[in-house]
Amino acid sequence: MSVAISVRNLFRYFGPLKAVDGISFDIPHGSVCGFVGANGAGKTTTMRMLATLDYPTMGSAEICGINVVNHPDKVRSLIGWMPDHFGNYEHMTVLEYLDFYARALGYTGDERRSRIEEVMAFADLVPLASRLSNKLSKGMTQRLCLGRALLHDPQVLIMDEPAAGLDPRARVELKHLIRILAEEGKTIFISSHILSELGEMCDSLLFINAGRIVHHGDAESLKRGSDTSGGVYYDVQVDGNPESVSDWAVLNTDVEIMETRKRGARIRIPSAESARAAEILSRMVREGVRVIEFHREQRNLEDAFIDILGKIEEGEPGLTPPPQPTTPAGSPPNDPVPPAEPPPPVV
Ligand code: ATP
Q1: What is the pTM (predicted TM-score) of this model?
Q2: Cα(224) to centroid of ligand 1, in Å?
Q3: Fewest beta carbons within 10 Å, which of 16, 143, 304, 328?
Q4: Pick from 165, 206, 154, 159: which is nearest to 178 by CA?
């Protein structure tokens, strides 16, 4: 599958602060990728660089193979951008607002009308056409922002916390619209703090912490609870003595007891292959453990995220690969980055 968003060793410093600290990732065409991180982790800074609104200190980013620093105009024609704060104009209705942007994008005549009609229908803006755009509710405002971002039918959508502040119904509607756009083949890069929702609509999740990528993978594997060494977790319940699981595990070194529980134990086995789990279960039963339940653990994404952050704090290797040597991106014309940036990190 070809790559829609490609980021390589991207850095953004604000004075001494490393807001983005050497990140690399690829997002395939037609997929939805959720961008997750605590407040201040570097999500908006990364997205703004991808949206050509800020320059990297170093490294490179490409949208559909086009470099964001060297060809910002081409990139802007490929992306739709939904910022976390919506800039608005007073005394402009929803229709006038979209018409203004469609004109700014260079659409004329019938084509302009049809683009506006299409996005109004898609984002359910028709009933709001004559409402003042700065007097809309949060949910309506987000739909208008989405409509504006889609006016030029971009291939890639970059959405910075579009669901923030929306009520549950508006969030469901937004999720539905995002899935439709993905089915149409658009690539969507979306940040949010609501992990459960991201898990439902995203093909992959990208976790960022203190400016570094700490995980990139699908939500299902996180939920199934496999750890970074490939181990998986099972809840084992027994009839009778709950200690019988840990007593048995003492002699079976491929099973690790994570926690003893009222009716058994939480165990870790070193492989996600179901054949391995089946073999361990049958061995347990054969050797006298009276198993009545044996099921693979499903974690929620919040727990998975917190686990990953915990492992980083403990310094588990492999989670935060050091930045690779990189060549400076060079100063684009009218580079707004202040010259007094710290020197590149030496690896
Ligand atoms: P949130 O979830 O709160 O929106 P975020 O992950 O989007 O957070 P960023 O907005 O990217 O985080 O900020 C990353 C870091 O960079 C923060 O420490 C922030 O204070 C800092 N930062 C962002 N923009 C600037 C700026 N223009 N000047 C100085 N520091 C900045």
Answers
A1: 0.78
A2: 32
A3: 16
A4: 159
